[in-house]
């Protein structure tokens, strides 16, 4: 009751002070939302994430991609965590899901938080915080970027929406720009957030067309460095290979740094969508600037904050899921139709 009243009065303040609701959209996210309701929530997220990151160097890549996929489909509402059911194929079972992972870490954090302060901390906030903490681990710093909290969890997750809304690795610049614009993100956000590809790997499926059959004539993508293409062919031996993976940022795929932009201008970006960032003058200029690591970290922090606030549920919207993989009352919804 108390919380609902708080959310209501905040909205009222927004209306009175700013005159328009627009100013306050996502404005209910704030610093340390759980300060009073679950004091050590953020410390618990960090300690469990760091414990897992210490034994699993691939965790940051898993979580950052999970957070990105979550936010691009129905906003950052942890819809990416919901399991499919008999009547519904959920986001996590969509086509672009191959390397999604880290679910077990989110679940471990959630069950600890449920035992300390039941029903308080959302899965959506856990994903946002754990992503930041996992990436920060290699720096032994609590926060490479600030994460505002107060997100609530959604109850709808549809695979077809993920297929539709997530950008394609085969996209050209104008498609990528539109995809990000549709989410309220700019070309700068696109270039900065693509820097997420400074860590992690991809299956051959998403780039082997560039090696073997770029235009349907058994040709290679001329915008890919030929020597690097030859190397990639030793890994992905044919178009049929769907299981081998290659590093997104060769030589530095576990280090969160600005090296992605260095390999990009050497024409070694793995996806067409990476290479596409060089095909627009404005975007290319941003690529050049982001080779400065301090600049990249500053910009990444800002773009992640924007991405993390996209279409969030706050106040009395949504729910606080008890288990991140299932909505609280599965029977209350008819979510089998698209
Ligand atoms: C710009 C449009 C983007 C496209 C087309 C794209 C596409 C992809 C694809 C196809 C993969 C490989 C998945 C697999 O093999 O299963 C991948 C991996 C990855 N993406 Fe992106 N992505 C984009 C933007 C982003 C953003 C904004 C972030 C985060 C800020 C991100 C972070 C990652 C990470 C960390 C991985 C590696 C995952 C792992 O190693 O498990 N991507 N991406
Ligand atoms: C959700 O699905 C995962 C993977 O299939 C499974 O391990 C987990 O037990 C499921 N969660 C629930 C609450 O059913
Ligand atoms: C991706 O989707 C497939 C097909 O629905 C599913 O079998 C697989 O477990 C999913 N992968 C992850 C990592 O969730
Ligand atoms: C980008 O791709 C879209 C869809 O395939 C196509 O219609 C458009 O012409 C392409 N744009 C450029 C500049 O190649
Ligand atoms: C290359 O693409 C063309 C046109 O789409 C297709 O007919 C051909 O079978 C492809 N080659 C291979 C090896 O898949």
From TrEMBL:
Residues at the active site: 69 (proton acceptor)
Residues that, per the record, bind Ca(2+) 1: 70, 73, 75, 77, 79, 91
Site-annotated residues for Transition state stabilizer: 65
Catalytic activity: 2 a phenolic donor + H2O2 = 2 a phenolic radical donor + 2 H2O
Binding residues annotated for heme b, in chain numbering: 197
Presence of keyword Glycoprotein: yes
Residues annotated for substrate binding in this entry: 167
Disulphide bridges, residue numbers: 38-117, 71-76, 123-324, 204-236
Molecular function via GO: heme binding; lactoperoxidase activity; metal ion binding; peroxidase activity
Signal peptide feature range: 1-26
Keyword Glycoprotein applies: yes
One Pfam match: peroxidase
InterPro entries, alphabetized: Haem_peroxidase, Haem_peroxidase_sf, Peroxidase_pln, Peroxidases_heam-ligand_BS, Secretory_peroxidase
SUPFAM superfamilies, per the entry: Heme-dependent peroxidases
GO cellular component: extracellular region; plant-type cell wall
GO biological process, alphabetically ordered: hydrogen peroxide catabolic process; response to oxidative stress; response to stress
Domain of life: Eukaryota
EC number: 1.11.1.7
Task performed by this protein: Removal of H(2)O(2), oxidation of toxic reductants, biosynthesis and degradation of lignin, suberization, auxin catabolism, response to environmental stresses such as wounding, pathogen attack and oxidative stress. These functions might be dependent on each isozyme/isoform in each plant tissue.
Similarity field: Belongs to the peroxidase family. Ascorbate peroxidase subfamily. Belongs to the peroxidase family. Classical plant (class III) peroxidase subfamily.
Entry protein name: Peroxidase
Organism encoding this protein: Citrus sinensis
């Amino acid at each position: 009751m108390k919380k609902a009243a708080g959310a209501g009065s905040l909205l009222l303040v927004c209306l009175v002070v700013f005159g328009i609701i627009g100013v306050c959209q996502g404005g209910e996210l704030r610093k340390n939302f759980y300060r009073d309701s679950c004091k050590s929530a953020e410390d618990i997220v960090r300690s469990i994430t760091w414990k897992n990151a210490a034994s699993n160097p691939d965790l940051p890549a898993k979580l950052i991609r999970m957070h990105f996929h979550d936010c691009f489909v129905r906003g950052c509402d942890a819809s990416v965590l919901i399991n499919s059911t008999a009547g519904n194929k959920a986001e996590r079972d969509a086509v672009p899901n191959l390397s999604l992972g880290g679910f077990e870490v989110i679940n471990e954090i959630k069950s600890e938080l449920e035992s300390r302060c039941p029903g308080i901390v959302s899965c959506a906030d856990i994903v946002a915080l754990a992503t930041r903490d996992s990436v920060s681990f290699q720096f032994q710093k609590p926060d490479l970027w600030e994460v505002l909290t107060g997100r609530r969890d959604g109850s709808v997750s549809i695979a077809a929406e993920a297929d539709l809304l997530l950008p394609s690795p085969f996209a050209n610049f104008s498609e990528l720009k539109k995809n990000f614009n549709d989410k309220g993100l700019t070309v700068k956000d696109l270039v900065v957030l693509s820097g997420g590809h400074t860590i992690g790997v991809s299956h051959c499926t998403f780039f082997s067309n560039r090696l073997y059959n770029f235009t349907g004539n058994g040709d290679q993508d001329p915008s890919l460095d030929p020597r690097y293409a030859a190397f990639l062919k030793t890994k992905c031996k044919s178009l049929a290979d769907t299981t081998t993976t290659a590093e997104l940022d060769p030589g530095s795929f576990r280090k969160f740094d600005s090296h992605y932009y260095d390999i990009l201008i050497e024409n070694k970006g793995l996806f067409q969508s990476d290479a596409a960032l060089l095909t627009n003058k404005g975007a290319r200029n941003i690529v050049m600037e982001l080779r400065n690591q301090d600049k990249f970290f500053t910009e990444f922090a800002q773009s992640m904050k924007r991405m993390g606030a996209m279409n969030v549920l706050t106040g009395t919207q949504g729910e606080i899921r008890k288990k991140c993989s299932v909505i609280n009352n599965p029977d209350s919804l008819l979510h089998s139709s698209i």
